[in-house]
Write a structure and sequence with these properties.
The chain is mostly beta strands and 181 residues long. It contains two helices and twelve strands; from the N terminus they run E-E-E-E-E-E-H-E-E-E-E-E-E-H. Strand 9 and strand 10 form a beta hairpin.
């Protein structure tokens, strides 16, 4: 299995009951890095490992998008955007909890597959992009945002599922991000 692509950063805000609201796009996906912090406890007895716990504690997700569109990123970070398009950041702003997903393209035994990777509860934090002047040649820079991955009240923190077609994967991701009627 070789991962060869990344598409469709999508998210949905979570309500007070940790239910998703409606899917929204974060722009075009460039990069996604997830790192996990696991509980690590080991009990030794009779000169050997008798019990262990390596369960999920929390994680970090860092995503890079093609455009730092204020209409998307500002609300994701808890900021308001005026009708004139101005973003005002306040020290009292609180980023909402969201669910976040993406689709990975893979090749398995010469066949394309599409894997949905979904994080059930994430809270993004403020970040400032690196900037530089244009020199003798143009160099693209992008924006990354980092969030904390956590468990929902029921203990769920992630879901994954692989599909034969991109359309099936996309429908599944949307279903995870859409409030059930």
């Amino acid at each position: 299995m070789a991962r060869i692509g990344l598409k469709n950063f999508r998210f949905s805000k979570l309500d007070a009951n940790e239910d998703v609201m409606k899917p929204e796009s974060l722009g075009k996906a460039i990069d996604c890095k997830v790192s996990l912090e696991l509980n690590s406890a080991e009990l030794y007895a009779d000169d050997g490992l008798a019990e262990s716990d390596y369960t999920f504690n929390k994680g970090t997700v860092t995503i890079t998008v093609d455009d730092d569109d204020d209409k998307i990123l500002a609300p994701l970070l808890g900021h308001e955007v005026s009708e004139e398009g101005e973003v005002v950041r306040k020290d009292t702003d609180v980023a909402p909890y969201i669910a976040f997903g993406r689709i990975l393209t893979k090749i398995v035994a010469g066949v394309y597959k599409y894997k949905v990777e979904f994080l059930s509860k994430v809270k993004f934090k403020e970040t400032m992009p690196d900037e530089k002047t244009k020199g003798e040649s143009v160099e693209f820079t992008t924006v990354s945002v980092e969030g904390t991955v956590m468990k929902k009240a029921n203990g769920e923190w992630s879901k994954t599922k692989t599909f034969a077609t991109y359309d099936e994967a996309s429908e599944y991701l949307d279903s995870l991000l859409t409030k059930a009627e």
